[in-house]
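From the shared-data thread, chain only:
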Amino acid sequence: MNALEQFTPLMDVVISHIHEGVILTDYKGKILFHNPAADELLGFPQFDTVGAIQEATGIDLHRSLTTTASNELVTGRTIIDRHRFEQRITRNGKTRFLEVNSTMVPIPGEPAPIRLMVMSDITDKRRLQAVLNDNRTSGLITRDPRMIEISAMMEHIAPTRASVLLQGESGTGKSLLARMIHEKSQRSNAPIIEINCAAIPETLIESELFGHVKGAFTGATQDREGRLQAANGGCLFLDEISELPLHLQPKLLKALEEQSFQMVGSDKNVKVDVRIIAASNQNLRELVDSGDFRADLYYRLAVIPVEIPALRDRPGDIPLLIRYICDQLVSRGYPDNLECDEEAMQLMMDYPWPGNVRELTNAVEHGMILAKNGRVTASALPFDIRHYRNGVAARNQAPVASSSPQESDPHKREILDALEDSNGNRAEAARKLGIDRSTLWRRMHRLKLI
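Structure, as tokens:
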């Protein structure tokens, strides 16, 4: 009995009961041994070669084979030949992620080494990362020249202390860019603290920003740090800064300029070292002109102003983003290998995306959930996308002289009145109407107001 024949039964005794999948092959890829865990991970117990595994499952183990290294071992030369890679595998409609570690193992008395491959299921780890990356990713998925220019600008802005003002419609990626700036800065080891000025009641926002001391107001039972203190050494991201009440804007300006402030109910100065990134879906300069935002605070925030284009102005990014979103959703457990038919893709290319990338993400998830037989068809897309083209055609065909349904629509007068009261500011008009900005945008399109 040769050394290899003695080695294999030993592997069977030692490795058959561990949770990791183990496969032994010769340097040509012939399977010498595989344990039950490998069978379960691959979902295909009957295989003789790594080629058969690839044909049946799509998992490419050939990359872990190095014939040249094996031949060098035959000549007596000792080398280290290790590989590690991750592989996505779909079996019976379920997608899993495997980590494969591969190495050459010389066998005493044998002229050629064998290849040892150890496989682990890392699906839960990858899905957790995908969920976290929804909020923490700092990469830009784009091929649009303006977005590429913005990305390049971020590389120059990030290492500085300069305040940055990001402006653009909701869902265009302002939070993403803020994190990108922070993660590429010298402050990346310190936290980036986010506060949405529109999401906090006006009576609480001062305490949220600056903190308070015990007894400062009813319910203040102990000292509490504010977001500025939490961001000390790092970055404070002020989202929807246009919603910050006017009476608090001077205090914020003073805190930013002096890097010190007083907590609510205290007369002691608190020193901080904080970089500010602000974002707004409204044009702050227009708000300054209308008296709704302080000019001095605007100039303090807009050292580096950045205007982010809407998704409808960069349609070439839509297919790229769809592919990226699909990959993220697959990592979270959605089905793999779905196809999007031509009509569905054309509908998404034609749609103007008032909710921008956020709306696109929801639409892709909607399509994946309602896909049939592995295909995302037009019927799987959200209602607004499916019917947008018909609505445009109907408006274009409506007689100019005759009364149209739009003219009698009760929303039309309300929208016009709200826009007039808001001096044309759509975000303000949407708030007056009690709807979000994207809903207002769709109604205005339907009524041919834009």
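The chain has three domains: 3-121, 145-308, 313-446.
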